[in-house]
Amino acid sequence: MSYFHLMSESSTGRFPAGFRRLDIGARREALRKTFAFSSDEWDSISCAPELFPLLDVMVESAVGCVPVPLGIADGFLIDGQEVSIPMAVEEPSVITAASFGARLVRGDGGFRSWASDPLMTAQVFLEGVTAEGEKALAGCDGQLRQELSGPLASLSRRGGGYRSFQLARLPSGTLRVDMVIDVRDALGANRLNTAAESVSPLLERISGGRRLMAILTNAAAQRLAGARFSIPVDRLARGLPVGMSGPEAARRIAAASVIAQEDPSRAVTHNKGIMNGIASLALATMNDTRAAEAAAHLWAARDGRYRGLSTYSTDGRTLSGEIELPVALASVGGSVELHPASRAALRVLGNPDARGLSRIAAALGLAQNLAAVLALVTHGIQKGHMKYHAARLAYQAGARGEEARRLAAELAASGAADLPSAQALLLDLRAQKDRS
Ligand code: NAD
């Protein structure tokens, strides 16, 4: 029994001890009895019962699923290929922005993308290693390779596996052993954690130290993907505010890009926009969204100052944009491929391997960011966002279908942005309809 299991056995909570050991049906019953769910609340977390056994092996104490909307960002041209990108996200403007960014650049060759080998790093932290012990470890490459051949056999068979190692002495005195491993199409977290733990006794024997912990690093600093585009500035001219030219819009985008490099408080929002795209793709494919986020934000601060992950420049005739960041997305392993929704998303993407997926992610992040920055430095982003807000208010007020579209349009035109106004306007609309 794992440490977590022992803790949850002894813990008290709202549910009887052993809740996690119930089957999912019994767990759902206990949940339903404990909380007074409305029928729409209950229905919304009750996915198809055929999925229950899968949910049960994906996470512990499963009781249902959260139906996050899944949309498709279309119109991407990446390295000459048409790509449709599934995105799972709750924020309204994200998919439209991605498609808009894709359409802006597709007429001029679209995105060029690249990806490094899928190298991840497993780490063992050793305490009590003397200078001699460290010296002894420095020569252990052959032994490490040999020791790792078992745990990494499934990766080696596919052309991946152990590549190299290095040592780092931390300010605390702890010695860190970094083992670089090519994980092919997996995230590699489980593989690397197994490898790091299994190699620890050897490292202890050679160094005379003791293992404090062994785990992969999510830095993924050697698993990079990037994308770039270049478009004539006139492409930006359509729909700009009166009096603003394409070259001026491009100049403003480049100026915003400089600010994202020099001001971390702007950079974090700039990067949040990029991750709107990448995290939505990660979730749609059932990749580990937290791993993708953690790696991106650490990379943004790699020179000691947190900076924007994308940059833009213009010479007055063309606008160029570029992004490069760690993208640890898998096309196999974990919940990827296991969950049918993940398989469906990969199918829409054309079943890319992990490097292909990371290239798509980089292009998506850049498209997302281009659309957001263009909106920010021209009309402002609220104009578009308020349209979505009006649609949500109309829904909350009880309007559906055509009535909801009409109410949202009237709300947006009136500038009202609260539920009582939406409810009052809906009553007016219905009264008008009754009279006509
Ligand atoms: P995994 O344990 O499913 O291992 C991948 C499997 O896929 C291996 O058995 C491998 O042999 C097989 N495989 C088949 N074809 C392959 C190919 N072409 N390339 C590579 N492998 C191939 O998954 P994983 O990637 O080791 O770990 C991912 C899981 O670990 C995720 O669910 C993640 O959330 C979780 N996790 C993450 C962290 C972290 O990021 N810090 C920590 C622990 C666990």
Structural key phrases:
single chain, 436 residues, alpha+beta, four-stranded antiparallel sheet, 49% helix, 18% strand, globular, binds nicotinamide-adenine-dinucleotide
Uncertain runs are none
What topology, given as strand order, has the largest sheet?
3-8-10-9
Total strands: 10
Order of helices and strands: HHHHEEHEEHHHEEHEEHHHEEHHHHH
Distance between the termini: 70 Å
Radius of gyration from the CA trace? 26 Å
Q: Kindly state the percentage of residues in helix.
A: 40-55%
Mean pLDDT score: 95
Multimer state: single chain
Class per helix and strand makeup = alpha+beta
3D structure, described in words:
This protein is α+β, with helices and mostly antiparallel strands and 436 residues long. It starts with a helix and ends with a helix. Helices cover 49% and strands 18% of the residues. The longest helix has 24 residues. It binds nicotinamide-adenine-dinucleotide. The site of nicotinamide-adenine-dinucleotide has 22 residues, from helix 8 and helix 9.
